[in-house]
Each structure stands twice: as C-alpha cells, then as structure tokens.
Task: inverse folding
C-alpha cells in the first residue's frame, strides 16, 4: 500500500453520551455503531459493551445494565430495533433519558417508522448525536456508495469500474460493501474496469425485469442469456413470467392510449411518466396483434410454470422466444 | 308441507330417496349426490337427512325436520369449506365424529357438501370410515360430478344423480319460498341457468344484475388488442369489488369476535404473542377465503359470458331449446350476426381454457387477457 496522509476524519472524535443511528440501511448502520464504539475505546480502553434487542427484551434490563457497577468502569449500551420495541423498553429508555448515568454511553438503533417516536424526540431534545443510515435503493445511490467506499480508503476508482461493480454485485448492499473492501485490500493502484472484470467478470445481476426488457426489445440472444443466468442464480420462473406479462400489458395500454403528453397518459393509466416514455420507445417495431400473440404465449407459459407443463424453464424460454420472434415481425 | 318441497325438478332422484326412507331394504350407509352447481345437491341431502330423522318420514313440521333442514340438528353434521380444499386434519375429525352413536335422533348423518374439495389425502383418510361405518351412521357426499370424487370413495357409496331443474320449476320455487315477482323469478332462473342460489341473488340484488349485464356486453365490445386488455382489467376489477363488498365487513367482525373470545383488549396497539398467533391464523384463513371468493366471482362472470355465445350458437343451429338470455335477445342476435358457428365455438373454447387456467393458479388477469384476446371480433 502507498503511504496515506493522515486524514482529519481518522482522528477519533469525542463521542457524546447519547447517540441515535437512524435509517433502514443495515450495512451503514452497523458500521456507524462499530465506529462509535471504536471511538469510545480510544479514550476508554476497558469499555464494556452490552447489546439489548427489542425482540428479547425483559422489562428492567436496561436500567439494571445502566446501574453503576461495583467495580466502576465504563459501559456502552447498544439498544437494537427501537422501531420494534415493546412498550416496556420504550418506558425504560424514557426513564433512563430522564436521569442518565455517568459513564454510560447509550447508542440507539432505529430503522424506520413511527414506533418509538417519544424516545426519538427525547433523544433529540437531549442533544444526542444523530447518525443517518439512509436506504440505498437506486443504482445511483449504489454508485455513490461504492465511490464513497473507495474515496474513504484513499483509492482512485474509474467511473466505469464503479458501474461494472454495481452491475455485478449491486443486488445487495452488504455484498457490494464487502466487494469494495475486497478490492481495496487485494489490489493496488487505480481500480479500473479491468480489475473489476478480473474479480467479478461474467457475473451480471439478472432479474426478471432485465429479461423482459431484452425480450421486448427483440434481442433473442441477450434475453436467453439473461434468462439462463437468472435461473442459474436461483430466480424462480414464476416471477419472470409475471414481469413479462406486466411489460407486455404496459406496452398495449400505452400503445392504445393515443398520442397525448406522457404526463397525461401516465395519469390516466396509473403509471409513472418515465414508464410511459420507456414503453413508447419500446413500442417501435411492435404491432398490436404481435403484442396480443405474445400475451397469449405468456399466459400459456404461466399455466405450464404452475404445474400445467413438465418443464417450467422450457416454458419460459418458449415464451421469450415467441416474444422476440413477434417483435422481429413473425 | 314436506321436507322435500325445496327440492325442485328432481322427481326421479326423489323417488329413490323416499323409498329408502320407508323401506329399510332400500337404505344404505353411504350416498353420493351429484348434479350441476345450483341443482340443489346439499338441499336434497339435508332433506334426506331430515326425512331420516323424522318419526313420520319427513313431515317438514316437527322439531327433527326443522332442525335438520336448518343445519342445527345435533346428529346431522354439515361439512363445507370456504377455503380451497378440505384438509386431512378435518377428515380425521369427521372419522372420529362418525364413530359416535346418535345422541337424540335415529341416525348420525354426516353431510360433506363439498366432497369435490376433498384432497387425495383427506379422501383416503375417510375410506375406512365410509366403507364400514358404525351401524347408525350415514354418510352423504355432494359433488358436481362423479369424476370430481376419488374413485375409491365413489365405489363405496350409492350414487344419486340430480339433473338441472327446469327453469320454470326454479322460478316457481323462488315465487313460493322467497315471494319474488313471477316475471323476475323466471328471468333470474333462466339467466342463472337454473342455479337456485344464483337465481335468488339475481332476483333480489340489483348490483348482481348490473354486473351480469356488464359481463355479457363484453361479447360485443372487444375489437382491438387495447380493448381486450381493458376488458380483462374490468373483469378483474368487478371481481375485486364484489370480493371486498362481501368480505371486508365479515373479516372485521370475525376479528373482533376472536379478540372478545380470547379476552384481549381490542384497542391495544400490539397484542401479546399468544394472541398474535391466533390473529395470524385467522388472517391466513381469511386470505384463502378471499382467494376462493375472488376466483368464484370471476368464474361466475365467465359462465355468464359463455351463455351468450351458447345462445348465439343455438340461434345459428336453430335448435329447439330455450335461450339462457331470453331477456337479452338483441345482444344474442348481434353476436350471432358477427360470428359464425366455428368462431363461436372457438370463443367458447377460449373461455373454457381461461377457467381451467385460473383453476390451476394462473394469475387471473393474465388468463383473462389471453381469453379476451381470443374474443376479439373480426374487423
């Protein structure tokens, strides 16, 4: 590894006695809790960490743990899942917040929702440090997350490399995070597409949606490749058929909705405007009758997949082949 | 007045049953009632049970008769399911029940109103009990056709075939029993194709009549691919509405009754674990019921739709049989003018395929789309 200048971020900050880690993204939240505990250990090397879980909480646990110990010493109490907390845990938390103990650091984890709102308000008004762990859902969030991972480790990654990485392992954020860590630990220099290809080559995130997109675009080989890939990584044929049906249905509905502005059409059909635009682009090369025949092929496949036929995978393949053939004009 | 008065248009079957009540030699311990839906299979089975319990062979007035017909007789057990099937645990309970002596009546009668919903597993569990029941136990199974019942159950029971009652007989029953206007009764009986329960609903509920008319209009409405997809969406929407109408209130009532039985506080935001598990079980049951009701409603719309094509075909062939949609002759004529006999048959096939697919768990919307696409009219 090259020499890395000491970053301001690396100097442990003083942790206030109350902290709230709020947000649904488990990976980021776990990391935040770990970071807080590590920061605490810098000034309190013999820190004792107690974890309390909402699901197994017995009334009084929190106060018993928070009570001063005979041997002194510092303690950090991590309360998990405030958003699922029973009333007793919430009451105990409020009691603790009303009279906090010295030498006890309380870290509360809250995923989302309104449950435990009183405790959240009490934490905020007691000036707890709030760490956000926002959900990472869109490809863009994932790209940002991966670039941030590399930047935090002072590594340069090309945009192409980040995109390829997200495409390969982006389905779960924790997998993405560990893939980033692996690349950071195992390679040197700039991370480019060749490096990602070396580690994750050939792995593509294959979902029913991508199969359907390729099929509707008439790209036979790509659609079949993605389909096989999806089946091989354990995607069930049933949702794939459902997505095929849904895409074709959308094309028919948008196609027969006329030439209005996409915002108006979207409102009439109960779709998002981008879906209408996308459907309009895909409609090139389709005739209504071809769409009709495709829908019928998908319906037959659904019957076969649900026990009517012998080989569910073949049934889906045949439906995909019918769709791409119809798209190319029979 | 007699217990048999609600069993309409089934003279041949009645003769067999009445003889069995009078003559011990004509009696047997297991009966299988078959007949098209709405022909009164379970009504016939109940009447037979009542006649067996009645000291005078089915007067229709005494306590035994009335309770047996209502389904409250202590020794007459009516089994039906609102779920998709009768499971093996249910079957085992029945075996146990059938082994007991009657408590007040002459016979212990177990009526399985949905014998077609017995699974292979639960049917097998009943075999022994049906073959050799205790001396005072009578089994009565009801199913649409012989093929719907496990072959081993079939061979262990005596078969009583009910026919589709004539529409006039059904209308007469509606007038007599429910006090419905004769003209409306005849329309409803014809439109429901002699399905007694359905005819009654059609005659008494405006909403049902409107839904039926909407379903029928589909036959002459679908021209392009877009129309077909819209029509399928409409059918599903109608079914959803009807399902919500009939279930939402009932589900809430069941939940509050359950909470009351368990002594739980209905206003609590979260229930303790043991109550939560009971609620989860109830919700699961309600969900299967909702699936069943949804499918049944769609299936009914499809049978309605099928009847228009059937009538149009009758028009073409000039067969001397009554029309189902006599009140809607204009629609039938329009359809007969648009499609030839071959096309009508193809359309009927498409409806049949859709029913089969929905039965096999295909997403209803998709199955209906495939069907409505086949129902497109020629340009």
Result:
């Amino acid at each position: 590894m090259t020499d890395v200048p000491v970053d301001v971020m690396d100097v442990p900050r003083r942790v206030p006695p109350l902290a709230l880690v709020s947000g649904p993204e488990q990976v980021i939240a776990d990391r935040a809790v770990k970071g807080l505990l590590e920061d605490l250990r810098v000034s309190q090397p013999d820190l004792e960490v107690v974890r309390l879980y909402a699901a197994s909480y017995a009334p009084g646990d929190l106060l018993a743990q928070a009570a001063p110990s005979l041997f002194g010493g510092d303690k950090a109490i991590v309360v998990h899942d405030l958003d699922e907390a029973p009333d007793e845990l919430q009451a105990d938390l409020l009691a603790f917040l009303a009279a906090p103990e010295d030498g006890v650091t309380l870290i509360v984890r809250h995923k989302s929702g309104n449950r435990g709102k009183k405790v959240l308000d009490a934490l905020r008004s007691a000036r707890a440090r709030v760490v956000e762990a926002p959900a990472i859902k869109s490809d863009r969030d994932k790209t940002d997350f991966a670039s941030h991972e590399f930047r935090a480790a002072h590594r340069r990654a090309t945009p192409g490399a980040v995109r390829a990485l997200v495409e390969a392992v982006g389905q779960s954020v924790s997998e993405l995070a560990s893939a980033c860590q692996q690349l950071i630990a195992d390679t040197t220099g700039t991370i480019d597409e060749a490096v990602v290809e070396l580690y994750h080559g050939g792995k593509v995130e294959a979902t029913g949606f991508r199969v359907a997109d390729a099929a509707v675009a008439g790209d036979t080989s790509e659609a079949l490749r993605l389909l096989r890939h999806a089946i091989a990584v354990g995607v069930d044929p049933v949702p794939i058929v459902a997505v095929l049906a849904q895409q074709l249905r959308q094309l028919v509905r948008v196609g027969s909705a006329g030439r209005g502005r996409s915002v108006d059409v979207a409102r009439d059909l109960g779709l998002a405007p981008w879906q209408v635009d996308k459907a309009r682009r895909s409609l090139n090369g389709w005739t209504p009758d071809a769409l009709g025949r495709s829908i019928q092929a998908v319906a037959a496949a659904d019957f076969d997949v649900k026990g009517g036929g012998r080989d569910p995978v073949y049934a889906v393949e045949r439906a995909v082949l019918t769709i791409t053939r119809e798209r190319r004009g029979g | 007045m007699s217990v048999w008065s609600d069993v309409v248009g089934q003279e041949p079957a009645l003769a067999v049953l009445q003889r069995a009540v009078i003559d011990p030699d004509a009696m047997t311990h297991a009966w299988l009632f078959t007949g098209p839906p709405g022909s009164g299979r379970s009504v016939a089975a109940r009447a037979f049970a009542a006649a067996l319990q009645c000291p005078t062979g089915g007067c229709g007035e005494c306590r035994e008769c009335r309770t047996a017909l209502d389904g409250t007789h202590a020794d007459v057990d009516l089994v039906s399911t609102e779920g998709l099937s009768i499971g093996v645990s249910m079957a085992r309970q029945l075996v146990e029940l059938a082994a007991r002596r009657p408590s007040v009546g002459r016979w212990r009668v177990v009526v399985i109103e949905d014998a077609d919903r017995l699974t292979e597993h639960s049917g097998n569990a009943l075999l022994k009990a049906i073959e050799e029941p205790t001396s005072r136990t009578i089994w009565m199974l009801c199913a649409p056709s012989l093929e719907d019942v496990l072959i081993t159950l079939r061979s262990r029971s005596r078969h009583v075939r009910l026919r589709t009652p004539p529409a006039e007989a059904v209308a007469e029953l509606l007038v007599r029993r429910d006090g419905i206007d004769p003209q409306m009764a005849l329309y409803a009986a014809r439109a429901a194709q002699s399905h007694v329960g359905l005819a009654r609903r059609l005659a008494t509920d405006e909403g049902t009549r409107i839904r039926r008319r909407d379903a029928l209009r589909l036959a002459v409405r679908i021209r392009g691919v877009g129309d077909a997809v819209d029509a399928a969406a409409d059918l599903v929407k109608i079914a959803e509405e009807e399902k919500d109408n009939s279930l939402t209130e009932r589900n809430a009532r069941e939940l509050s009754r359950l909470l009351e039985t368990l002594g739980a506080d209905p206003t609590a935001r979260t229930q303790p674990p043991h109550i939560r598990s009971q609620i989860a079980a109830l919700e699961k049951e309600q969900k299967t019921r909702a699936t069943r009701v949804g499918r049944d409603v769609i299936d009914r719309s499809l049978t309605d739709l099928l009847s228009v094509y059937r009538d149009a075909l009758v028009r073409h062939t000039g067969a001397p049989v009554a029309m189902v949609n006599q009140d809607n002759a204009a629609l039938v004529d329009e359809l007969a003018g648009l499609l030839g006999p071959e096309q009508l048959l193809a359309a009927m096939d498409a409806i049949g395929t859709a029913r089969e697919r929905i039965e096999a768990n295909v997403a209803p919307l998709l199955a209906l789309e495939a069907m409505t696409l086949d129902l497109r009219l020629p340009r």
